[in-house]
Amino acid sequence: MLIVQKYGGTSLANAARIHSAARRVTGLAQQGAHVIVVVSAQGDTTDELITKAEFVNLRGSAREMDMCLCVGEQLSAALMAMAIGALGFPAVSLTGWQAGLQTDSVHGNARITGLGNDRIRKELDKGNIVVVTGFQGINQNNDITTLGRGGSDTTAVALAAFLQADLCQIFTDVDGVYDRDPRVYPGATRFGRLPYDKMLRLIEGGAQVLHDRSVEMARDHQIPIEVLSSFTGAPGTIVGP
Ligand code: ASP
Ligand code: MG
Questions:
Q1: What's the rounded mean pLDDT across residues 227-231?
Q2: Is the pLDDT of residue 233 over 90?
Q3: Residue 183 has pLDDT above 90, yes or no
Q4: Does an H or E element contain 75, and which?
Q5: Ligand 1 neighbourhood includes 41 CB (under 6 angstroms)
Q6: Does ligand 1 lie within 6 Å of residue 72's CB atom?
Q7: Percent of the chain scored above 90 by pLDDT?
Q8: Which ligand is nearest to the CA of 41?
Q9: How many domains does the chain have?
């Protein structure tokens, strides 16, 4: 059984939340599953990195912006691997390029094109829980690219597709997909299941719970995605065929 779990920025915002995510991950490993963990940058880190860059140069090149923005996820990945280690489980963190995530060259909005090595598979075979930075890869020149805001979801779905995972879970700060933003509209209704096309229409209408390309990729590879809360762990919304 291979499971990909992605944790968003709110779910990793501080040490306590990282530990709580790590406990969820190791719980699965304890049951015998192979686990790949995809992480976003903590809290508002990506926004802060953009601000830092803009203080230096309002029009820094897209290549250097990617070099700057990718560090948020790298920090999260290292911290997550350490938290898993603290629970007594072997873990290794990998950047997008170490994991072989190849993309096109559109800096700031790159598309994943393939998985160029078998590093993740090898680390899983060694018994490691593999933590991969979301939101980034490398292009043909070995330059770092990022996938566009919210792109860590797409990293998770891409890995689930390339490595034929049994399940792809996206842990976030809401307990599923709603017809309206539940943080703004208390009367919003939650979906138990949702077809890919309907999810894409919600995203077109402004829903931010999933990155659009993650849903397209899931549809193209027929991967079901479960969107659920990292705070409760209760069953969420299945976005699927
Ligand atoms: N950290 C990136 C962002 O804030 C990617 C992600 O979280 O999915 O957009
Ligand atoms: Mg997101």
A1: 96
A2: no
A3: no
A4: helix 71-86
A5: yes
A6: yes
A7: 98
A8: 1
A9: 1
Token pair of 45 as six digits: 């880190």
Q: Do residues 133 and 39 make contact, with C-beta atoms less than 8 angstroms apart?
A: yes
Please indicate whether residue 214, judged by its CB atom, sits closer than 6 Å to ligand 1: no
What mean pLDDT comes out for the span 10-30? 98
134 has pLDDT over 90: yes
Residue with the smallest CA separation from ligand 1 atom 6 is 150
Q: How far is CA 223 from the centre of its chain?
A: 15
Specify the long-range contacts of residues 207-211, CB closer than 8 Å, at least 24 apart: 207/177, 207/181, 208/150, 208/181, 209/172, 209/174, 209/177, 209/178, 210/150, 210/153, 210/170, 210/177, 210/239, 211/147, 211/148, 211/150, 211/151, 211/152, 211/153, 211/154
- Ligand 1 contact, 40 CB (< 6 A): yes
SS3 106: coil
Ligand 1: residue of 46, 73, 159 to mutate (most ligand atoms within 8 A of CB) is: 46
The residue range of the domain holding 128 is 2-240
CATH code for the domain of 62: 3.40.1160.10
Q: Which atom of ligand 1 is nearest to the CA of 41?
A: 1
pLDDT band for 202, please (50, 70, 90 cuts). Answer: very high
pLDDT of residue 65: 98
Ramachandran sector of residue 150 (left: φ over 0; alpha: ψ -120 to 50; beta: rest):
left
